[in-house]
Amino acid sequence: MTPHIEQAIYGLVSTPVLHLVDRHDILTCLIKNGPLSAGAVADQLGLDGDTVERLLLVCVTFGIVRRDPAGAYRLTEEALPLFDRGNARYIGGFVEHLTLGAAERMQRLEEYLRRGKATVDATREGPYDIFYRDEESTREFMDAMWHLSHGVSKELAALADLPAAGLLVDAGGANGPFAAAALQQSPGLRAVVFDLPPVRPHLIRAGLAAGVADRLDFVAGDFFTENLPPGDLVSLGYVMSNWPDEECLHILRNAYRACAVGGRVLVMDRLFADDHTGPLATSVMNLLMQLETRGRHRTTAEYLALLTEAGFTDCTVRRSTGDKHLIIGHKAGDQRDRSAPAGGDEGA
Q1: What is Dmax (Cα atoms) for the chain?
Q2: CATH number, domain 3-92
Q3: What is d(CA 144, CA 92) in angstroms, rounded to the nearest whole number?
Q4: Residue 333 pLDDT more than 60?
Q5: 3-state class of 192 per DSSP?
């Protein structure tokens, strides 16, 4: 078998393994004290040495960890920032999100295959009713969003050419991975996150941890039924891929209405190649969007078409070195307002 086929077959094991070695501090121990043998890691953490060894050997084959001739393990340079809890690129919360409930999600995927999503989900709760069902599920979802987005948000904020002052409205901004990065990038900027009420305490904690709480506010609301607060910039970070085209157009029209004349909308998301042949992460996450939300991932052309239909002009794409990119639309001063009030006939 080729390496790609082997990875496809055995990849089922890799994500739960990564979750375990992160959750039980095995990778953290190697980062702080390595290189170490599996036995030394087990002794420090009070874990079973044989199981630690077997888990680490799987991590070796997936390129997360290296094993030297003496049997000591250390993280690879590529993996180290992704599993260092003090690094902005840490993805442990996202790995946890993928792992928890994986069996249930895969069973539902088979039902989608047989009967279609609309039929299977007809009596199922909406995605955000599930994400925010209780404090634990809200925390897990917020952690996943932060770890999925904050690292690349630093680069995206730099690509956005943020103004020296003004107000950023981060619509559906969760606990503020992009808003915090934007405020750190532009010390004269203020930001308000517009999201559902359960998000508030998580945003407050994140703002304090990022050192931007004095310039970061929260407004509770639903962008399908309420107008966004007015601002100089409106950002939509990993929001559009949660919804079908009709709902995305409604969100963008709401953003157009909220955006000051001469202002911009910043859409951040994964992008399919023009021929939909990848990248791998986008293809996998596109499938997860079907399982967890009502949305999908799109090509550059599909996003530009939605932005144009909503009224934005001079739309451009700026690509990061990561897996999320920036699509910018401008609100021209002489453009006719194509938006309908939130909750009107065009609503979802």
Answers
A1: 70
A2: 1.10.10.10
A3: 8
A4: yes
A5: strand
User: Residue 130 has which token pair?
Assistant: 């599930």
Does residue 209 contact residue 177 with C-beta atoms inside 8 Å? Answer: no
Mean pLDDT on 302-314 = 97
**pTM attached to this predicted model:** 0.84
Task: For residue 313, give the H/E element and its range.
Answer: strand 313-318
End-to-end CA distance of the chain: 47
The predicted pLDDT at position 276 comes to 94
Residues in the chain, total: 348
CA distance 227 to 256: 10
Give the three-state DSSP class for 153.
helix
- Provide the 3-class DSSP secondary structure of residue 287: helix
pLDDT for position 129: 87
CATH topology for the 125-330 domain = Rossmann fold (3.40.50)
Q: Is the pLDDT of residue 131 over 90?
A: no
Q: Give the C-alpha separation, 63 to 190, whole Å.
A: 41
Number of helices followed by number of strands (H, E) in the chain = 15, 12
Q: Cis omega (within 30 of 0) on the bond before 35?
A: yes
Q: Where do you find CATH 1.10.10.10 in the chain?
A: 3-92
Q: What is the mean pLDDT of the chain?
A: 91
Q: Residue 342 has what pLDDT?
A: 52
What pLDDT is recorded for position 304? 97
State pLDDT tens for residues 251-295.
999 999 999 999 999 999 999 999 999 998 999 999 999 998 999
**The dihedral sign for the CA sequence 250, 272, 173, 127:** positive
Peptide bond before residue 16 is cis, with ω within 30 degrees of 0: no
Task: Tell me where in the chain the CATH 3.40.50.150 domain(s) lie.
Answer: 125-330
Segments of 25-76 assigned E as strands: 36-37, 65-67, 72-75
Question: Bridge partners of 236?
Answer: 267
Query: 98-102, 187-191, 241-245: lowest mean pLDDT where?
Result: 98-102
